[in-house]
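Hi W., the FE2/S2 (inorganic) cluster complex you wanted:
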Amino acid sequence: MSKKDSSKPDGTDEPSGMRKGLTSYGDQDFSLFLRKAFIKGAGYTDAALERPVVGIANTGSAYNPCHGNAPQLIEAVKRGVMLAGGLPMEFPTISVHESFAAPTSMYLRNLMSMDTEEMVRAQPMDAVVLIGGCDKTVPAQLMGAASAGIPSIQLITGSMLTGSHRGERVGACTDCRRYWGKYRAGEIDGDETADVNNQLVASVGTCSVMGTASTMACIAEALGMTMPGGASPPAVTADRIRIAEQTGAQAVRIARDGLSIDKVLTPAAFENAMRVLLAIGGSTNGIVHLAAIAGRMGLDIDLQLLDRMGRETPVLLDLKPSGQHYMEDFHKAGGMATLLRELKPLLRLEAMTVTGRTLGEEIERAGPGFVQSVVRTAANPIYPQGGIAVLRGNLAPGGAIIKQSAADAGLMEHEGRAVVFENIEDLALRIDSDDLDVARDDVLVLKNIGPKGAPGMPEAGYIPIPRKLARAGVKDMVRISDGRMSGTAFGTIVLHVTPESAIGGPLAHVRNGDRIRLSVAKREISLLVSDDELARRAEESPVVEPTAERGYRKLFLQTVMQADKGVDFDFLCATKPDGR
Ligand code: FES
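Structure:
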């Protein structure tokens, strides 16, 4: 075999292109001979096979309308790869959509990350383009790529367009929840509910508000993992297709330059991601996913640091659910360049990006801003502090979080009587009962929706207001659980209580009538019950941890970690700080 076949695109002697990761037949030259014979069956020439290979992770699926533009994106990525002298090789991986994954998409995120890691590792490619968008897909791909360790670049599918219902602009899924709330409260009838159902998702693409998908898109760009401007173009726009072409071309360059993912996913990059998460009023899920991605690099997301950063990072982005606008408005306002320019004094500008330039250099290259009304200035923020506060107390010794920017200011300092639901089934059975003993000042507590509890830490933390209170006009109450909440949801909702109730965390021992105190100012979440009484309850009703007999569920329950570790599997974390 010629030297051309074997040398790496970056000039080193490591195997590259089609010679990389040869299947084991004992005879390496025969393995390459066989591989080439098979790929030539698809009509490739030797000239094509000598090029740097760029894998393209295709997550298109009929079950995933958030990735409905995948065919157009793949075509554009391939064009970019070929324009830059590479060979594009598309391959499928698992795709996970929020509404088509039971029991919850989070249950499958780690599986998708393992699929991504192993297929990137197993198949010959010098760089990989990761096409993701719907909530769990981008974190899964970044986790997998971080572990695989090769040059990687994220391509976001982009947000959906907004629709219009009887003259009102609507978009998934903040407005989905708002209209469902109106229906539950008897404010709209079934016919109007059916009408709005046609308008909430006006095109393919991801949710149009600052939910988890938009949050992860912004975080991916803040991490330096996308092309500049890659977070915000809607799915069906020419800008999105252009980003795809640029992504393909850049993938060839990072393959040639050997810009592996560990050079981008550094502690500085994670700090920038946390800043951006806070400044965009991002989804609380972003913390869990960042912790999981960092864990793959042997790094920790320090919740106390996040809280300190939150106190000095204002919410600048005026997007639902914290504000008024939608992702397409953010894009028209200049997208991430506008936000990063405003956040510049708080950013680690030396962080490297997939362009081979630092974040600071990219901000300079984006040029001056223009007048717009979607990204506020630091002097005139949407909310003076970061969107997320980290709480501690005897109810959550390992921490809990609250999205204060989407909460009711009047409930941030609150003490109330606990109304307890033991699990999701119990909640579904009783929440709408006229017999439920509940008042507007009570604190709703839902147990057993943590990583092991449900399992998969579903987005059930957005506990609905009991129907009889909703009818009486109650819009918000303090709600507490060990689960997650959709980034599109809003309310005074304490989430990610750690340790979770299913493994015997204090939440397991809360009883109806206990007093609970929330103080966002003091970052406190306390159960006003003595330690002795809690110990007595633990002895009286010991928690039996969930188990499974076989399969992925068994693997999940045996190895999943708590929220502060990103709900990743323990054996997938890096053991060293360089991601190995
Ligand atoms: Fe896919 Fe919201 S359901 S992004």
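The chain has four domains: 1-50, 51-161+203-365, 163-197, 388-546.

W.
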